[in-house]
Amino acid sequence: MAVIFLQIAILLSSIAALLKKKLVWVLGLAVGVVGLVYFADGFLLFIQ
Known about the structure:
- This protein is an all-alpha fold.
- The protein has one domain (2-44).
- The protein contains two helices and no strands.
- The model has no long low-confidence stretch (mean pLDDT 92).
């Protein structure tokens, strides 16, 4: 699950760079944070 969110974040960041749209970049950052939370959950097992 974390990998999916991180890959979507990379995709959105790439699109934002091509289109020069800050909103898409911020959305990519938000999705990346969600991916990092899922990664930390899988690594540390703190969300039930």
